[in-house]
Write a structure and sequence with these properties.
This protein is of the alpha/beta class and about 170 residues long. It has helices at about 20-30, 50-55, 115-130, 140-145, and strands at about 35-40, 70-75, 95, 100, 105-110, 150-155, 165-170. The strands form two sheets. It has a five-stranded mixed β-sheet with strand order 1-2-5-7-6. α2 links the parallel β1 (about 35-40) and β2 (about 70-75). α1 (about 20-30) packs parallel to α2. Residues about 135-140 have low confidence and may be disordered.
């Protein structure tokens, strides 16, 4: 399985959606001979440091001396992008404990390319999403946080919020 990379993995930092600690995820990836793993928690980058340390530590060691390469990302709720975009009306979903969660916003997984610039872009996106989360137009904060569509790309070249795909990549082009 060494040629396969999980690009959408949630840890226990994705409350209600993930259970394993980043160290355990890295340990399992190394045990499977995976050379890379993406951590894409929902709406947070809180597990990124533990994930990076695990990849550099004993948990990330693959047979033969290689290490699991960390790929940093985040899974964010976003508003539809473009003219005439309208939020789908869906019933609220009961969550564990009886609370209701509105899951009607589409989600996009953002992955950072190598380098500090890409990490900064991820941080900026998460900050924009959280800063606007209390407003009626909360999820659209991500679209506004992007500024220019050049800052974040979707494989295929379109804007990440136009509904063309669930994956976007931050950072300079390769």
């Amino acid at each position: 399985m060494s040629g396969f990379t999980h690009l959408h993995t949630a840890s226990g930092f994705s409350l209600r959606y993930g259970a394993s600690h980043p160290e355990r995820l890295v340990e399992r990836a190394a045990g499977q001979g995976m050379h890379a793993l993406a951590l894409t928690d929902r709406d947070t980058l809180a597990g990124a440091i533990r994930f990076a340390k695990a990849c550099m530590g004993a948990e990330g060691e693959i047979k033969g001396g290689d290490r699991v390469r960390p790929i940093f990302g985040v899974d964010l709720a976003v508003a539809s992008y473009g003219e005439g975009a309208r939020r789908a009306v869906r019933p609220r979903t009961p969550a564990r404990g009886g609370a209701f969660v509105d899951e009607s916003a589409p989600r996009v997984t953002f992955l950072a390319r190598d380098g500090a610039h890409a990490w900064a872009e991820l941080c900026r996106l998460v900050t924009a999403a959280h800063a606007r989360s209390g407003t009626a137009d909360g999820a659209r904060g991500v679209a506004e946080g992007l500024g220019s569509p050049d800052g974040v790309r979707v494989p295929g070249g379109s804007h990440p919020l136009d509904g063309s795909g669930p994956l976007a990549v931050t950072g300079p082009p390769v």
